Amino acid sequence: MKRRRLAFQLTPLLDLLLIVIFAQFMEVNQASQQNQEVFRRKEQDLERQLWELDQRTAAVSRDRERSLALLSQILKRSAADLNDSELARLATQGVASTARHLEVFTELRKRADLWNLHLQDDGVCLLEIGETVTRFKATSAEIVAAELVKVATEIDQPRGLVVILCSHGNARFKDRLAVEDGVPIAATRIREIYGPTIRVEFGLLGYRVNW
After folding, report:
1. What's the CA gap between 107 and 102, in Å, rounded?
2. Of 132, 117, 136, the residue nearest 180 (C-alpha)
3. Tens-digit pLDDT profile for residues 48-67
4. Residue among 85, 48, 51 at smallest CA distance from 160
5. 142 vs 109, which has greater pLDDT?
6. What's the rounded Cα separation, in Å, for the pair 38 and 41?
7. Which residues, 6 or more positions from 200, have their beta carbon under 8 angstroms from its beta carbon?
8. Are 79 and 192 in contact (CB under 8 A)?
9. Which domains does the chain possess?
10. At what angle do helices 173-194 and 141-154 cross, to 10 degrees?
11. Model pLDDT, residue 133
């Protein structure tokens, strides 16, 4: 009689134990599926970033080829004889020698408002226009664009040519993307503000030691 009563009382305990084991199994299975989804999203993000990097690399190569073609045509001409478009192109894409570089920038400073935008290691942008230096955080492309447009609206009498020269230190890839994407947006908006009488150009000069 005692043995039957003990067996009768153990049955619900075994059922409860099976339920607990099954619940734990489902929890582990669900967690595994969630981890797989996280890994899948990270893999997709990485693939997208690699694709964007490939596109940017291809664009840089095309720009370099066009720049070399332009240089071959105008390298023998004096910087003073170049029109604003050619001068801005040389300044933003680089030149063949240090002497030529100095010649171009000397002439550029006479004709244009030269904006030096440098992204530091800590993600802070330094914008130098003459003796004025403005600092802002490169949080996103939209913020970079908004800061540059704000500066543009505070300049009373801009010259007929505005050239934005961008460089960076050992900044994070995310911050560099914010600047590289934000400057073209800013250039478009500044052109709309200044109108057709003022030309706005920009160039990505790449790595440079921090100021």
Report:
1. 9
2. 117
3. 877 777 677 666 666 656 55
4. 85
5. 142
6. 5
7. 162, 164, 187, 190, 191, 194
8. no
9. 75-207 (3.30.420)
10. 40
11. 93
The one-letter amino acid code at 23 reads: A
Contacts of 22 (CB under 8 A, 6+ apart): none
Percent of the chain residues past pLDDT 90, beyond the cut: 27
Average pLDDT of the chain is: 76
Place of tokens 């560099």: 176
- Count CB-CB contacts under 10 A for residue 113: 20
Give the 3-state secondary structure of the chain.
CHHHHHHHHHHHHHHHHHHHHHHHHHHHHHHHHHHHHHHHHHHHHHHHHHHHHHHHHHHHHHHHHHHHHHHHHHCCCCHHHCCHHHHHHHHHHCCCCHHHHHHHHHHHHHHEEEEEEEECCCCEEEEEECCEEEEEECCCHHHHHHHHHHHHHHCCCCCCEEEEEEEECCCCHHHHHHHHHHHHHHHHHHHHHHCCCCEEEEEEEEECCCC
Q: Do 180 and 173 meet the contact criterion of CB atoms below 8 Å apart? A: no
* 202: its two tokens: 């920009």
Residues 70-82 pLDDT 10s: 544 444 445 555 5
- Residue in 63, 48, 104 with CA at minimum distance from that of residue 81: 104
Whether this prediction's pTM lies above 0.90 is answered by no
The Cα–Cα gap between 151 and 183 comes to 13
